[in-house]
Amino acid sequence: MGVKVRMLGVLKRISGKDEISLDLSGGANLREVIERILEDIIGLKDILLDPELKDPRPNTIILVNGKEIGLLDGLETQIKDGDEIVLIPVVHGG
């Protein structure tokens, strides 16, 4: 099963890639895809995941096939062959 993951902004800069392709055998949900990305590109962990919640949603807008995951099943959204996931970092400060 092939999935395309696009990274924008600081995620692109840190990973050195604007797009990666993942081969996921047997299907996966979005949480598993993100875990796989973090295994492959270790430098993203501190940027992608909220340090307290261990969740990417406070720091990243995540789209699956153009739809924000809040409109889907969140991190439990089932990813299918040919899906496109886009990770957009949220820029905020205090």
Can you tell me about this structure?
- The chain is an alpha+beta fold and 94 residues long.
- It has a single domain (2-89), classed as Ubiquitin-like (UB roll) (Roll), CATH 3.10.20.
- The protein is 23% helix and 30% strand.
- The protein has 3 helices and 7 strands, in the order βαββααββββ.
- It starts with a strand and ends in a 5-residue tail after the last strand.
Shape: globular
Quaternary organisation of the protein chains: single chain
End-to-end gap: 41 Å
Q: By CATH's scheme, which homologous superfamily applies?
A: Beta-grasp domain
CATH architecture classification name = Roll
Kindly list the characteristics that best describe this protein:
94 residues; 30% strand; globular; 7 strands; 3 helices; five-stranded mixed sheet; Ubiquitin-like (UB roll); alpha+beta; 23% helix; two-stranded antiparallel ribbon; single chain
Topology:
Layout: E1 2-7, H1 9-15, E2 19-23, E3 28-29, H2 30-40, H3 45-48, E4 60-64, E5 67-68, E6 78-79, E7 84-89
Parallel strand pairs: 1-7
Antiparallel strand pairs: 1-2, 3-6, 4-5, 4-7
Would you summarize the structure shown here?
The chain is an alpha+beta fold and 94 residues long. It has a single domain (2-89), classed as Beta-grasp domain (Ubiquitin-like (UB roll)), CATH 3.10.20.
